Amino acid sequence: MLSTSDIVAPDKRTPGVATIDPAIFPMLDKLYARRIKRLNAQADLLGENGAYFRFLTHLVQGQQRIAEQSPLGPDDVEAIRALLQQKPENTQLENLLSNITCWQAAYATLAKQVAPLLPQDVGDKLAVLSADKTQLTQAAAHLLRFDYQQVDAGVAVVLWAALSTCWAQAVSLLQEESMTQPTAQAVCCPCCHAPPVASLVLGGAREGFRYLQCSLCEVRWHRVRAVCVDCGASGQIEHWTLDDAKSALQIETCGDCKSYIKTFRLDYDPELEAVADDLGSLSLDAAIEAEGFKRIGLNPFAFPA
Ligand SMILES: [Zn+2]
Ligand SMILES: [Zn+2]
User: Fold this and answer.
1) Are the CB atoms for 262 and 212 separated by under 8 Å?
2) From ligand 1's centre to the CA of 179, what distance in Å?
3) 231-245 confidence digits (pLDDT tens)
4) Ligand nearest to the CA of 24
5) Listed residue (69, 149, 68, 59) closest to 107, CA to CA
6) What are residue 101's phi and psi, to 5 degrees?
7) CA torsion 43→157→79→20, rounded to 10°?
8) Nearest bound ligand to the CA of residue 23
9) CATH number of 28-176: 3.40.50.11740, 3.90.1670.10, 3.40.1110.10, 3.10.450.710?
10) Which sequence spans correspond to the domains of the chain?
11) Of 10, 5, 3, nearest to 222 (Cα)?
């Protein structure tokens, strides 16, 4: 794996023995830098139609600055750890969220920074939430409970980015302590319960291992290949590509439960970044959804309508 990779090298405590890490925790500085680079590449490709990618570049730069300049304090980390122990359906979720101030501050900062880049009505909605802690907390709880339709789509992107910056810092500090469930069968993140963005097949020292990348806390967790992420069946798994079989961008479908997940072959192209490159390849999703398959992953920059 290249030194610019945002995927931390495997544990080499036992030389010569390939152990599979159940989870890989984010290196946020490198991850954000890679995401910005890939979002910019998509924006350039789209030219004057690339406005949304340019907006996202600013949003991720905002996340990067928050992680660098306002790192979480021990109290924030401890409060997020306590929240991660709870299931999303817990009725105390709003109370717990309300008492964690770092994500609220992150939201206010991001909302202020990106509002000038957005249509007036979206900017206004962002500002209204900044000023109303109760509404803001309720909106965050809806997102963490997968009730995306309850939150305005433009607001959801910024609010999720704020939560993500804080959750990702917390799990990267807590490492294994943030894991609340085993990874072997996990469809959702073993640390924060959020759905994956996509599936990654790694290169380098973890050549060929498959990990799912969390849409919220950026953790990657191991799942064996050739088995459906959702239902665990292996009889009708197929891989689809737009061009040749060596394409770094693939779709894995399961004929048993009719689900699919996008797969990035980092062993073929280590430059790919799950969130940015997923967003840049939504035409592939449309093609596979037309075949009757349902997407497993969530892209935090494109909430389902
Ligand atoms: Zn997570
Ligand atoms: Zn399945």
Assistant:
1) no
2) 9
3) 999 999 999 987 777
4) 1
5) 59
6) -85, -20
7) -50
8) 1
9) 3.90.1670.10
10) 28-176, 196-295
11) 10
> Is the CA virtual torsion 149, 153, 157, 163 positive or negative?
negative
Ligand nearest to the CA of 174: 1
Ligand (nearest to CA of 296): 2
pLDDT (tens digit, 9 = 90+) per residue, 167-199?
Answer: 999 999 999 999 988 888 899 999 999 999 999
First to last CA, the chain: 37
pLDDT, averaged across the chain = 93
Q: Residue holding tokens 């890989």?
A: 24
Distance (Å) from CA 119 to ligand 2 centroid:
40
Q: Which one of the ligands is nearest to 294 CA?
A: 2
List residues, by chain if needed, whose CB lies under 5 Å from ion ligand 1: 189, 191-192, 194, 214, 216-217, 219
CA of 168 to the centre of ligand 1 (A): 8
Ligand 1 centroid distance, CA of 191 (Å): 5
Run of H or E including 143:
helix 133-144
- Report the share of the chain in percent with pLDDT over 90: 84
**Per-residue DSSP letter, 163:** H
- Ligand nearest 233 Cα, by number? 2
In sequence order, the 6+-apart residues with CB closer than 8 A to the CB of 274 are 197, 198, 200, 213, 264
